[in-house]
Design goal:
59% of the residues lie in helices and 0% in strands. The protein is mostly helical.
């Protein structure tokens, strides 16, 4: 059962997706340019940003991943829908 989600749910999810895209691209770049210090610094900054965004999102809306990758509150939140990939 889907319930109405606040607008900032979508804003935060969009921010996470944007950071994930940058991390993916930097990861691919660093696979072929492993000594690029500036790219490594940018990757690490984005990784910190992603961790903070994910933490804030999960505090407010529940886990982004299962199988021990995210914490849950009580009651078990994984059953709550929609899941992030469904919106």
């Amino acid at each position: 059962m889907h319930h109405k989600l606040p607008d900032h749910y979508y804003t935060m999810l969009h921010e996470l997706q944007a950071v994930d895209f940058v991390l993916l691209e930097l990861n691919l770049y660093l696979d072929t340019h492993p000594h690029d210090t500036q790219a490594i610094q940018q990757y690490n900054q984005c990784a910190q940003q992603r961790k903070a965004l994910a933490y804030q999102f999960e505090l407010e809306f529940g886990p982004l991943q299962n199988y021990g990758q995210s914490y849950t509150k009580q009651p078990w939140q994984w059953n709550d829908t929609p899941w992030p990939w469904q919106v």
